[in-house]
Amino acid sequence: MSSHPQTKETPSRSAVPAYMSDPNEDFLQFLDEQARRLENASPEEIIAWAAETYGDKLTMATAFGPEGCSILYMLSKVAPQTYVFNLDTGYQFQETLQLRDRIAEQTGMEVDLVQPELSVEQFEKLHGGPLYNREPDKCCFERKVTLLHKSLQGMQAWMSGIRRDQSEHRAATPIVKWDPKFKLVKISPLATWTKQQVWNLITQEKIPYNPLHDKGYTSIGCWPCTRAVLEGEDERAGRWSGSTKTECGLHTL
139 catalytic, yes or no? Predict the structure, then answer.
């Protein structure tokens, strides 16, 4: 496991402001303070703080990337009761779905597959064919963003596998922040970690990962919009290649 320095004393539960879907200045200040306090904490310490603070109102959405697999491993040690789900768009690689089962076998973490109301066949029939090659933003919105809104109902905080070194867009990601799009607290335990640190953990602990990574797929989403990257390219260059799109919409305002 990691060897980051210990955090300062964790605030008592009585000192934690009550969650509010429309945060006031005091609540936002509390989140800023926790972000600064946890800046040098290990991912395990961040996860432990999140679980202690939000209990069964804490969740995580994972696409089973190396970061998500790493957090699932940590959750199995620190907060195994945490509800974790995957947005099953219907366009996922078979390797991704098989990885879900391998993760469960090794860690005991069962990831719930949540699916849109319309099947892929119904969705494409409604829109006169695939949307991913004509309107990828709309496809992501209807197959992922709206599904995440629904899945987060009743929750107070969610975790992501975002790292600051993944892209320019993610470079300023705080450990803890208010997420105005989904109206809950967003926690990124791996924000300060590097790609190398993630893969070191996967190798050392023999954490299952997607075999597509061994074929040049550094970032894996839906199969129609994902390709292997070329040498020297950004690790997310294989997502929506050939377009200006860089994010599915889950991690943008």
Answer: no
